[in-house]
Write a structure and sequence with these properties.
This protein has 371 residues and is of the alpha/beta class. It contains 13 helices and eight strands. The strands form two sheets. Strands 4-1-5-8-6-7 form a six-stranded mixed beta sheet, sandwiched between helices. It has a two-stranded antiparallel ribbon with strand order 2-3. Bound molecules: zinc ion. Zinc ion binds next to loops. Zinc ion (ZN) binds next to loops.
Length: 371
């Protein structure tokens, strides 16, 4: 092919300038299609970024790279075609598939049979139509999953992989419910309520709902026992649980403190349990959407029940027992039912494919029969 460099002009140069401008390398497209000094600088920067020879010449290799860079994931439908799709969008799709544990081979930016197989695998795992075409539904799923795998850290990948390997339906899952305290340890007390009793009752309500949708539900304690948090974590590990939900009620020295918070494992940057964080956000979101508890948000903690469990684990601190308003809510069986329903929906949402995920707060128990 013809080559272009500093001093050349014509429609092909205009094309290259438009591409460089679109990619953010050339601040403005000149009025005349002349390969000027600014175009030369922009082209060399592009070549350097892409690991090409930095010679300021648009040859075959550079032109191919420019043409490929034009495509961002989502710009067009991607599928296996006689003349394969080539571009940065294909490379991005391949990278994402690899991150999620689907073998797309090397991220070479060419949509070949191996890319198609990997894509179909992802679609099957997430309950999408396994048509091997990367369209809007698949893109939505990839975008959601993308947040879970940022950084590509091995622990994150393992967790996310375990999550998608476990499939998208609730029946067959094992959930460990961990009502805090118990036996002689009554936990926080206030306004005639005891934390140990409140969370035990809440666990029973949630257990009923989970069992009704086919989840095997195990409790870390009965009414009379109070295992340590390490023992509770070991119990969940031995049971091979998919999730752990630890239930507590908070207290504060001031009766003015109120609100609900959810915790997941994390000890600063890079150690967060991403699936745990996701579940914590879902639990918090659903509880806040369905009740009028103050939103005290989601936080990282290294508590043993979160740290020693090998599966995503979260701890709900459902309101402040020392706050008159929160205590009045906690005393109400209807409120506990609402919270149990919120927790159930949060757990279901964790496994739900992106396309089937209805807006927060609208899902009700009968909906599960249709999934
Ligand atoms: Zn507690």
């Amino acid at each position: 092919m013809q080559q272009f460099r500093l001093g050349d002009s014509g429609p092909a140069v205009a094309d290259v300038q438009a591409l460089l401008h679109g990619l953010g390398f050339l601040p403005a497209v000149p009025d005349e299609p002349v390969f000027d000094a600014a175009t030369d600088r922009a082209l060399r920067e592009f070549q350097q970024r892409r690991g090409l020879s930095v010679d300021g010449v648009v040859g075959a290799e550079t032109y191919r790279a420019l043409a490929a860079a034009r495509w961002k994931l989502g710009d067009r439908l991607l599928s296996l075609a006689t003349r394969p799709y080539v571009g940065d969008d294909v490379a991005a799709l391949q990278e994402r598939l690899l991150e999620l544990g689907f073998d797309a081979g090397r991220a070479d930016g060419v949509f070949g049979p191996r890319t198609e197989r990997a894509l179909r695998g992802l679609q099957r795992e997430y309950g999408l139509v396994a048509d091997g075409t990367c369209g809007p539904a698949t893109l939505r799923a990839l975008r959601q999953l993308g947040r879970k795998v940022t950084g590509g850290r091995p622990q994150v990948l393992r967790e996310t992989e375990a999550l998608h390997r476990s499939g998208v339906s609730l029946p067959g899952k094992v959930v460990v419910l961990d009502p805090g305290h118990g036996g002689p340890d009554r936990g926080a007390t206030g306004h005639g309520l005891e934390e140990a009793s409140v969370v035990e009752d809440l666990a029973a309500r949630l257990e009923g709902r989970l069992t009704a949708v086919g989840v095997r539900t195990l409790l870390t304690r009965g009414s009379d026992s109070c295992p340590t948090d390490a023992e509770r974590a070991a119990f969940a590990n031995e049971a091979g649980a998919d999730l752990v939900l630890s239930l507590h009620v908070d207290r504060a020295p001031s009766p003015l403190c109120s609100g609900v918070a959810t915790y997941h494992f994390g000890a600063g940057r890079g150690t967060t349990s991403t699936v745990g964080e996701e579940l914590a956000s879902l639990v918090q979101r659903e509880v806040v959407a369905r009740t009028d508890l103050l939103d005290c948000r989601v936080h990282e903690k290294t508590w043993e029940i979160l740290r020693l469990t090998r599966m995503p684990a979260v701890r709900l601190e459902l309101g402040h027992i020392t706050h008159p308003g929160d205590a009045a809510r906690l005393a109400d069986p209807a409120f506990r039912d609402t919270v149990a329903e919120a927790a159930l929906v949060a757990i279901q949402r964790l496994y739900l494919p992106a396309d089937l995920d209805p807006p927060t707060g609208v899902m009700r128990l009968p909906d599960f029969s249709t999934i």
